[in-house]
Specification:
globular
């Protein structure tokens, strides 16, 4: 009988590298990713032999017909796509393959996310201001304030990550 493990893993857009490292570690422990659901938060693994697997998380606001083909032609398998998010993987033996091979492509990915998070966060502010006067809204603050906080934290992390990448690029 095959052993299956289901893991709920919370992550946000600023943690792409964290989630890829976790997935690669799971593969090294012999937990092979079968599928992802719940908007990229629930991971299904099957126990097997440890293997070297490179993962990449990408976010795209607009995908043309060539997007998937470019990755598939270079040996990447799409394991998940939803809400603009893509999780790609590729097995390897010696040198770990990378999708983002240059700093500019990582900065561009983060800029796409910054644009989305800025729009979503900015849209929440007028809603919050209109409803703050409504006493019926007060119980919802228990949910609304943390969500607005998470959006703001993700936006801050993405901006900080781009500053670090830009500084690294300037050194090179």
């Amino acid at each position: 009988m095959t052993e299956i493990k289901k893991v709920f893993k919370w992550w946000d857009s600023s943690q792409s590298e964290t989630i890829t490292a976790w997935l690669e570690d799971m593969e090294a422990q012999g937990w092979h990713l079968l599928r992802v659901n719940w908007n990229g938060l629930r991971f299904h693994f099957q126990k097997g032999a440890p293997r070297k697997m490179s993962y990449c998380v990408d976010y795209q606001t607009k995908v043309d017909a060539n997007y998937a083909g470019i990755f598939e032609d270079t040996g990447w398998d799409k394991i998940y796509s939803g809400a603009g998010w893509y999780i790609w993987r590729q097995t390897y033996q010696h040198t770990k393959p990378e999708i983002f091979t240059d700093i500019d492509s990582m900065i561009e990915r983060n800029k796409r996310l910054i644009g989305v998070f800025t729009a979503v966060t900015a849209a929440q502010i007028p809603i919050f201001m209109i409803n703050i006067k409504n006493t019926i809204f007060y119980p919802l603050l228990i949910l609304y304030v943390p969500v607005l906080g998470l959006l703001s934290i993700s936006l801050y992390r993405l901006v900080a990550a781009n500053k670090r990448l830009q500084a690294k690029k300037d050194i090179l």
